[in-house]
Amino acid sequence: MSSKLRIIVGGMVGQFPLGGVAWDYFHYVLGLAELGHEVYYHEDTWVWPYDPVKGYPSDDASYTVKFIDDFFKNHAPHLRENWHYCLLHDKHYGMTGEKFDEIARSADLFINVSGACFFPDNLNPKCIKVWMDTDPGYNQIRLAERPAWAENIDRWIAQVRAHDVHLTYAENIFAPPPDCLLPRLDLKWVPTRCVVTLPNWADVKARPIAATAPYTTVMSWDYFPGKLELNGIEYHGKPPEYERFRTLPARAKAAGLDINLSLAVGGHKTPTDQIRADGWGLIDARTATLTPESYKDFIACSGGEWSVAKNVFVHLRTGWFSCRTACYLAAGRPAVVQETGWSRYVPSGHGVIAFSTIEEALNGLQKVTENPLHHREAAYAIARDHLSPRAVLVPMLENIFSAARHSS
Questions:
Q1: Contact 171, 340 (CB under 8 A)
Q2: In degrees rounded to 5, what are phi and psi of residue 261?
Q3: For residue 102, pLDDT beyond 90
Q4: Mean of the pLDDT values across residues 24-36?
Q5: In what order do the strands lie in the sheet with 262-266?
Q6: Beta strands in 53-210 (DSSP E)
Q7: CB within 8 A of 56, min separation 6: which ones?
Q8: Could you tell me whether strands 91-94 and 83-87 are parallel, antiparallel, or unpaired per DSSP bridges?
Q9: How far apart are CA 182 and CA 194, in angstroms?
Q10: Residue 121 half-sphere exposure toward CB, CA atoms < 13 A
Q11: Percentage of residues of the chain with pLDDT beyond 70
């Protein structure tokens, strides 16, 4: 895609103004701009923003507005005028409503990351509307089963289907069962994966890693709002997968593996005493991820990542790859992370290693600690070759226009 496009990226950073969330969504804005496109961030979710300092949603958008503005001021000053946050479809921040309407009227693409936003009111009728599924399994099951507990499910499904192109982080979605168990429905899915902008992590990559630096991750101890069931099987978030690997610190110690393992966990149901008793270091996730800068510092102080994935990603064999892991790799921090089918699409073995069993997790940790310099360099190479804007966004844009042509 050689021509310069006017692209609006929809997200939910203002709804959840936290460091990891900011990087998840703003990497698309930064990456598309890096490729030479004219890019704007837009958010209109019709939801009160969460205030992480207060610990609950607020009708005051001042924290969110400052958070977004500070991100662009600190990490992308050339885009500081290119964002628009709309509170409950009423109050406008960043760009004025009138200025954003001018942009929307001539936009080529509206990329709705996570499907978080409503369509801009004055969107160019020729604009290609792209829905990006970043939570595969959860979304496909809601689309297929219409669970009674899902709020406004019919409106949500109608909104999903109103998009022209449907991207998904389920890179494995076209593998035949039982290799992938996701329902495809009648949507023409276009697989993609997360993106990371390497220049934004260069300062972390350059920082030395202490010999005692722990292998870490950030995880949420949350549960779905109701039963997520498909064909009589219930799927879950991360807690059941933690349970499968909870003895890893003890197993590592018994194997003579000198490594610290720590978890930054959020969620009011977090079993803190159990996690500590299992031998993990425990960090408050809100503190670690409060700002984009604290999130970078958390990764900088890590030797690498060890993490499980959501149960639904794993057992449906989605091929999902973590945005968080992409940040570790761009920072030159190797990762040993749970297999979801992703190793078919992002090479495993050097820099990033897939595991399905506790024995494979131990072997992966042993491997990266035996030759840390090699795996740090390999981690960055994976980010460069498989997760950078040129590796992800160039083919993504080509696939979007191809899919739009075939659907017209």
A1: no
A2: -120, 125
A3: yes
A4: 98
A5: 218-220, 262-266, 281-284
A6: 56-57, 83-87, 91-94, 109-113, 128-133, 165-168, 189-191
A7: 50
A8: antiparallel
A9: 19
A10: 10
A11: 99
pLDDT at 2: 64
Residue whose entry in the numeric block shows the structure tokens 């191809």: 402
238 C-beta neighbours (distance < 10 Å), count? 24
Looking up tokens 């408050």 gives: 284
Question: b/e per residue, 64-80, with b = 16+ CB within 10 A?
Answer: bbebbebbbeebbeebb
Q: What pLDDT is recorded for position 188?
A: 96
DSSP H helix total and E strand total for the chain? 16, 19
Stated length of the chain: 408
Q: What is the mean pLDDT of residues 71-92?
A: 97
Residue 134 φ/ψ, nearest 5 degrees: -100, 0
Instruction: Give me 177's structure tokens.
Output: 């069962």
- Token pair recorded at residue 302: 């890590």
Per DSSP, the residues of 150-176 read STTHHHHHHHHHTSSEEEES-TTTTSP
- Cβ(284)–Cβ(277) under 8 Å? no
Distances (CA, A) of 395 to 70, 136, 222: 31, 20, 34
Residue 224 vs residues 165, 180, 220: alpha-carbon distances, Å: 26, 21, 11
In the numeric block, which tokens belong to residue 83? 């964002």
pLDDT in tens, 215-247: 999 999 988 999 999 999 999 999 999 999 999
Supply the DSSP string of 192-241, one letter for each residue.
------GGGGHHHHHS---TTPPEE-EEE----SS-EEETTEEE--SHHH
β-strand partners of 51: 56
Residue pair 163/151 in contact (Cβ under 8 Å)? The answer is no
**By the 8 A CB rule, do 127 and 163 touch?**
no
